[in-house]
Amino acid sequence: MYEAIMVTGMPGIGKTTLISNVVEIVKDKGYIVGGMMTKEIRDKQKRLGFEILDIHTGKKGILAHTNLKKGSKIGKYVVNVEDLDEVGVAAITNSLNRPEIDLVVVDETGPMEITSIYFRKTVAMAIRGSKPFLGTVQFKLCNNLMKILDITDLPKIIEITYENRNIQVDKISKEILKKIEKKY
User: Fold this and answer.
1) Contact yes or no for 94/128 (Cβ under 8 A)
2) Prediction pTM value
3) Mean pLDDT split into 10-residue runs, the chain, 184 residues
């Protein structure tokens, strides 16, 4: 079993919100967080796509958008593998290589992200790595995660529900902080 935690749950359950809250708690304790997060791009009530954010540097890119013309199509979105690799994969790689980064975060491992071979390989490296890792994985992909990422063991997978999502922020934060503090 790897020293990694991945949260999963139905769409809209609050996986990204949970990760964001854990990241803030870890930062508030003085630790440095790296990796990537995704965020919806909206126009009023309509979701148009997803943005990628390098947590450590603040660099942004477009993961997928309804207006893109070139790339793999997932549902109504076209995936921008170039930004995924240049922003997302680079953020994960830099977090693994920079000694000052205490926690590596990947939100999310989903159908759009796994279109990139570099993303799959880098996430697998992060899960197997020595640094604490916190990620999200789309619920539908959980059963195939070992095959998708070519890993030999599953990270700890926590399913988020409406009933447990608030308590899980505290539980996961404590577990992550314990892993970070073991390093020092």
Assistant:
1) no
2) 0.95
3) 85 94 97 96 93 98 96 96 98 97 97 97 96 96 93 93 95 96 78
Give how far the C-alpha of residue 78 lies from the chain's centroid of Cα atoms, to the nearest Å. 19
CATH number at residue 40: 3.40.50.300
User: How many separate domains does the chain show?
Assistant: 1
CA end-to-end span of the chain, whole Å? 22
What's the confidence (pLDDT) of residue 57?
97
Structural domain of residue 50, as residue ranges? 4-183
Residues 6+ apart with CB under 8 A from 160: 7, 8, 9, 13, 14, 15, 18, 168
Under 8 Å between Cβ of 67 and 81: no
Give dist(CA 109, CA 87) in Å, integer: 15
Q: How far apart are CA 105 and CA 102, in angstroms?
A: 10
For residues 9, 11, 12, 18, the Cα torsion angle rounded to the nearest 10 degrees is 40
Residue type, 2: Y
- CB–CB of 21/48 below 8 Å? no
Measured N-to-C along each axis, helices 15-28 and 165-183 cross at an angle, to the nearest 10 degrees, of 40
